[in-house]
Amino acid sequence: xxxxxxxxxxxxxxxxxxxxxxxxxxxxxxxxxxxxxxxxxxxxxxxxxxxxxxxxxxxxxxxxxxxxxxxxxxxxxxxxxxxxxxxxxxxxxxxxxxxxxxxxxxxxxxxxxxxxxxxxxxxxxxxxxxxxxxxxxxxxxxxxxxxxxxxxxxxxxxxxxxxxxxxxxxxxxxxxxxxxxxxxxxxxxxxxxxxxxxxxxxxxxxxxxxxxxxxxxxxxxxxxxxxxxxxxxxxxxxxxxxxxxxxxxxxxxx
Length: 254
What we know:
Helices cover 77% and strands 0% of the residues. It is an all-alpha fold. Helix 7 packs antiparallel against helix 9 (225-251). The mean pLDDT is 93.
């Protein structure tokens, strides 16, 4: 249960840093209206760190945690002085390390091995979060492209890569959940999660189609950066809520 509480807190931190990445990228690309939202997200992230430390007094001595926290403290104060590319790279690296830390926490609390029939639940803090992160990356990149008014050839290549990765990762999530069912995992635990993932396919297809229709333009993008950020978030949110649902179902087995 301690491990599950930490994962819940880490997921909130992950979501807020992902939002900071997208909004700050839009701000640096010229949409100054996003500045206020960046400030509020920064406050949320500060509260997230405090929550983690309240759950585990020893976490502040964990070298991985310290590295992530130190990186964030540097980034939140200096992002406005970074180039657009460096801001994205810094956030991406920070989030990748946070995803690794989430896996470390799950392993240290043996959440992958609670019972024979809970095998497969680890998909939610591995492949599922990775899928959501791919959408988060395209949301951040796309928000910046829309704010600046158009994309260049390198950005279009990156969007195409992320579109393909999102679809590939979603299929991996479904395949992993189905494989765990086939291997004897609990139908009550896994089947609802599998069905919910399948339900997200249509909205993700719409997002990637929108990316191809709007983000490939060199100029004349017809959507606002705030609207694009919101639309992409609507694709991320069901996946992230699945993380919460999966942990709730896991709690019921303990």
